[in-house]
Design goal:
Elements (H helix, E strand, L loop, with lengths): L1 H17 L26 H16 L5 E8 L2 E9 L14 E2 L4 H14 L20 E6 L5 E5 L6 H5 L14 H9 L7 H9 L16 H13 L3 H10 L23 E4 L4 E4 L26 E2 L1 H12 L3 E2 L2 E2 L3 H7 L24 E3 L4 E3 L2 H4 L7 E5 L5 E5 L4 E6 L11 H10 L8
Antiparallel strand pairs: 1-2, 1-15, 3-8, 4-5, 6-7, 9-10, 11-12, 12-13, 13-14, 14-15
Helix pairs in contact: 2-12, 3-7, 3-8, 6-7
């Protein structure tokens, strides 16, 4: 029997080699299929080595303990790389390592919203008060008076659902110190609410930063969307996502918590501590949020930043987006819905002359759709990806993009708050990926 098994394994290796596959890589159960070779889908293997070397250097320099990246074209894996370890003194990074994806939860929540949109449960230009009457008395910050007290005025109109999904509704977030409303978010511990209804109640008494539709500001709006999913579907957010997204797409490791039998696969998270001048293991989450133990059910399922996932799971989600809402014969949303999400919805008032820092300022070249950043004119934006590329990232340095023009998907996973402490990995990997795509017509 042992000899038969050995012969069968030898035969399988021979077949793999004949197809140009690596027999040494153990694939996850629901991994995307491998490309026969990088060249078969338009990439130059030698040029791709620049990408691999750059990512390896980030780890070798000690900026992060480890990393995982996956490059996909035409639905086939071109490269799936792991570097370093799951902690500076931890076990090696693996293909099934689990990561806190924080704000990469947002596009998933956006898809949940659009599932309900396709069911006729809401419309883009509905006032949000139609579904959240608690917001009927929202006020707008106007500054402070002579005594230093906040000046608040009633909002001229309620934010629309479109504005809630494009961060132009006026809500704050509390992740920075750019505005006094941020401090209110921290003082009220809005991101550490005991549940989504508690969060809504706190937001109802917190002023908007600006009048709806007049600016773009990264906000708590996707956590509001999580509440809307619950209210419109009648299900808890996590349950809805499990039944309508994770199970159909075969994403077994994406959830709002890590069960006991998977904890050993959870990579540790780090941040730079200026007090000691080095990268140290971090406790908790982004500024103003609760100290979250991902091994326990959260008090509030955060659609804006509460999920964990693996590189493979998220690549399956991203590939569904790249395919126009379908993967492996399972349709989540329609192609038109993906187009709607990948179209910038920013009003002229929210645009600036220079893009400034990606994800914070937008112009006619780089805009924001429904829970995705969207590159509308990549060459004017100074980038190499294709028109219509949809992307976002997470607080612990994770990043991804979906390029419908070139049919490219990329997922990058690290666990360090604020990014790698050096290069913008999202921008760097774009450049190094597309300089290697020498035959895009393949």
């Amino acid at each position: 029997m042992t000899r038969r098994i050995h012969l069968l394994a030898t035969a399988l290796v021979a077949v793999s080699l004949s197809l140009g596959l690596s027999p040494a890589v153990a694939k996850e159960p629901f991994a995307l299929p491998n490309a026969r070779s990088p060249e078969a889908v338009g990439f130059d293997s030698a040029r791709l080595e620049k990408l691999d070397a750059a990512m390896a250097k980030v780890v070798a320099d000690g900026r992060v303990p480890g990393m995982s990246t996956m490059l996909v074209r035409h639905g086939k894996v071109v490269e799936f790389k792991t570097y370093g370890a799951m902690g500076f003194d931890g076990p090696a990074m693996t293909e099934d390592s689990i990561f806190r994806i924080y704000s990469m939860s947002k596009p998933i929540t956006g898809i949940a919203m659009m599932i309900l949109f396709e069911e006729g449960k809401w419309r883009l230009d509905d006032p949000v008060t139609k579904y959240i009457p608690e917001f009927k008395n929202l006020k707008v910050w106007q500054g402070v008076d002579a005594a230093g007290k906040p000046v608040l005025v009633p909002v001229s109109r309620p934010p629309t659902m479109r504005e809630v999904m494009s961060h132009t509704a006026g809500f704050g977030y509390g992740l920075a110190d750019k505005h006094p409303v941020d401090q209110m978010f921290r003082d009220k511990r809005i991101l550490a609410s005991s549940g989504l209804q508690d969060m809504i109640n706190k937001l109802a008494d917190t002023p908007l930063i600006y009048e709806p539709g007049t600016q773009w500001s990264y906000s708590v709006a996707v956590d509001i969307q999580g509440y809307l999913v619950e209210k419109l579907s009648g299900q808890p957010l996590g349950q809805f996502m499990q039944q309508r997204i994770f199970d159909p797409l075969k994403m077994p490791d994406t959830s709002f918590m890590v069960p006991a039998d998977k904890v050993s696969r959870l990579a540790r998270v780090y941040g730079f501590d200026p007090r000691v001048g080095k990268v140290v293991e971090a406790v908790g989450g982004p500024a103003g949020s609760n100290v979250q133990d991902f091994t326990k059910p959260p008090a509030m399922e955060s659609g804006g930043g509460g999920l964990v996932s693996t590189t493979t799971d998220y690549a399956r989600f991203a590939q569904m987006v790249a395919n126009g809402g379908e993967l492996d014969g399972v349709r989540i949303v329609s192609p038109a819905t993906i187009e709607l999400m990948g179209t910038s919805h920013l009003p002229e008032a929210a645009l600036v002359n220079s893009n400034g820092s990606a994800g914070a300022r937008f112009n006619k070249s780089v805009g924001f759709g429904l829970d995705f950043m969207v590159v509308e004119d990549p060459r004017k934006a100074g980038t190499l990806e294709g028109k219509g590329t949809m992307s976002w990232g997470g607080a612990a340095g994770t990043w991804f993009w979906v390029d419908p023009t070139n049919d490219v998907v990329f997922v990058g996973m690290i666990q360090r708050f604020g990014g790698s402490g050096g290069d913008d990995l999202g921008g760097l990997t774009r450049t190094l990926t597309y300089q290697a795509l020498v035959n895009p017509k393949k």
